[in-house]
User: What shape does this take?
Amino acid sequence: MRPDSIDEIFRRAKAGKALFIDRKALTPEFVPDHLSFRDGQIQAVAEVLAPVLHGSKPSNLLLYGKTGTGKTAVARYVQAKLGGEAGPNELTVAYVNARIANTEYRTLAELAKFINLPVDKQIPFTGLSIGEVTERIFAAMQAQKRRVILVLDEIDYLVKSFGDSILYEFTRSGERLAPGFLSLVGISNDLKFKDDLDPRVLSSLSEEELVFPPYTVEELREILTDRAQTAFRPGAASQAAINLCAAMAGSEHGDARRAIDLLRIAGEVAEREGLEEIDDTSIRRASDKMEHDRVDEAIRSLPVQNKAVLLAVSRFREGTNTGELYLAYASLCKRFGLETLTQRRVSGILAELDLLGLIEASVVSKGRRGRTKRIQLLISEEALAKTLSEDTTFGK
Assistant: This one.
């Protein structure tokens, strides 16, 4: 880029009018003072966790629902209210996102930050066994008689990537923590992740469950209107722009997070262009950018086995069946030094990739020869190659 091009960008930014007042109001981390259309879910979560206020251990709780249905916001909202009611010396409220933590070790290390571990028992960045890290956390909790409510977001990622060993330790920790305790609030987009759990973990973890429905277009419109009043200067986000964002997100999946991101990115696009307000073109350009980023992020955040299966699918441009795909997958595992999963587990991964919209795995009829599953890549090979080239396993 020529220096004068950079100067032009900066000149346009200085001359343009800022559209945002508080950009944070349109970020995933922002929890508003009031969560619209989730009063029932807030009450249900509060009722499950309320026993902690008289010293009793609450039941473990699982929150289900598609992305952007308010699960995390509700959990953190109730968690904050609960912490304020009980006080820091009576209750520890902890939040860990398993996908962001990315490994079992880092998930435990994030939990440890909420516990006052002795200086000689601090958790280093790496170097300890999972058992040792767990033991240090539990010993500190017992010594401090600590009562902990742990919100474990994207709990399904932890199970699919590393198994349920940590959850087993958590759900069977009663005597090791007494008189303290640890109660779990797990958040998942996948109702089927429990299929991979040990029955002993399942019986303890699924004490209470709550499913969050998608938002309607009308509900998204009201949510965006409230956020826009906080985020933008007056007149920057018209009702027509808000309606379009709500319609685009609501017609596809009822995802409030996507609708809010769409409005924020549209505002950024309009601001860079020096516009006075968000227009239809800004919103559609924002939607195109989000779709590209969604595919990139979806691939990047996949567990290594899912990436191997996706890479195997990409070898068949015209699509393939499960038998041919499994042979290609097994060959890739041998090449990259990965454990080869069973055909049943690979079928489960294919269902997950289909749910993410990265592949299509449809059943087709072959007449008298019965039916078979046809598997085909739905994203460009270029996008897949670019993202996997950054992966330490598949980069070569």
The two ends are 30 Å apart (CA to CA). The mean pLDDT is 87. Residues 3-18+215-298 form a domain with the Helicase, Ruva Protein; domain 3 fold (CATH 1.10.8.60).
